[in-house]
Amino acid sequence: MRRENQSSVSKFLLLGLPIPPGQQGMFFTLFLGMYLTTVLGNLLIILLIRLDSRLHTPMYFFLSHLAFSDVCFSSVTVPKMLMNMQTQDQSISYPECVTQMHFFIFFGCIDTLLLGVMAYDRYVAICHPLHYTTIMREELCIFLLAGTWLLSGGIALSHTILLAQLSFRADTIPHFFCDLAALLKLSCSDISLNEIFIFATGGLISVLSFTGILVSYIRIGVSILRVPSTKGICKALSTCGSHLSVVFLFYGTTMALYIFPSSSNSNDKDIIASVMYTVVTPMLNPFIYSLRNRDMKGALGKLFKSGILFSK
């Protein structure tokens, strides 16, 4: 069926961030710096894991893919937002809007599922250290990663197909990117199927990831309490501290956005939560993993020393 039969608009207008006109330049510089930090920081993590053989373990295998997903997730929305701020042209074409929504859902699901997979990896490492290499073998890691990508791709594609069947009565999106919930509010079609699918897929992703994280850390806690010792607690904190920090940051902003939404009269809270979710969290992840992780700091120091020696 042709697109013009499905949508009455050829482009949308993104209202963007609620920034006073005189401060556009300052916020453009701020978000550009945050985006570059996100890209360079996560690419540095991927580079360190690739170059240092000590980091060729399941934990860092999943971390490298989380870093790649964070770069892509941020790149889906931030460059367009920056371009709109710089050019003052806030329009986005219908195909571009649907594509942005598709990849936003895709990489958002990947991030969510990878956090659950990484929690399981930490559970095996702490509770079954003697069998870690046997359980977390390469085949299982690839299977878990492939399952994450395939499930995320299927969910994103399904949302995209369902959205393509809708007609729209308005073209103004009160957001800085094409958020699915915001698009559904503009539709003049029956969106009950879309809402049911959002509830079903959101529940599936949440159950798979959050339940996996919760069960893994409960079992880790039980394992530590069985033989309480300062050394055991410190080891668990050093092993899980970075991952827990990212989990709290990720789910904290997600709950603020989707579980405790703002009133229909104001979108400022939703937009601020979205900025935290799409811009701040991917930027902070490299700092969390590099500053709280001894292996990453060692690999970074090794790379830095190698660079100094090479320059000489």
> Count of DSSP E strands?
3
Distance linking N and C termini: 64 Å
Strand content: under 5%
Total of DSSP H or I helical runs spanning 4+ residues: 10
List the uncertain runs. Answer: 1-7
The rounded Rg comes to 21 Å
| Overall pLDDT level | 84
Please write the string of helix (H) and strand (E) elements: EHHEHHHEHHHHH
Find the structural class using helix and strand composition.
Answer: mainly alpha
Side-by-side strand order of the widest sheet:
2-1-3
Q: Give the biggest sheet.
A: 3 strands, mixed
General form: globular
- Could you estimate the helical fraction of the residues in percent? over 70%
General description of the model:
76% of the residues lie in helices and 3% in strands. The chain has 312 residues and is mainly α. The chain has a three-stranded mixed beta sheet. The longest helix is centred in the C-terminal third of the chain and has 35 residues, at 192-226. The chain is globular. Mean pLDDT is 84; it is low at 1-7.
Descriptive keywords:
three-stranded mixed sheet, disordered N terminus, mainly alpha, 312 residues
Please outline what is shown here:
The chain is an all-alpha fold. The protein is built from ten helices and three strands, in the order βααβαααβααααα.
Secondary structure topology:
Blueprint lengths: L10 E4 L9 H28 L6 H30 L3 E3 H34 L4 H4 L2 H27 L7 E2 L6 H6 L6 H35 L3 H30 L8 H24 L2 H18 L1
Parallel strand pairs: 1-3
Antiparallel strand pairs: 1-2
Helix pairs in contact: 1-2, 1-9, 2-3, 2-9, 3-5, 3-7, 3-8, 5-7, 8-9
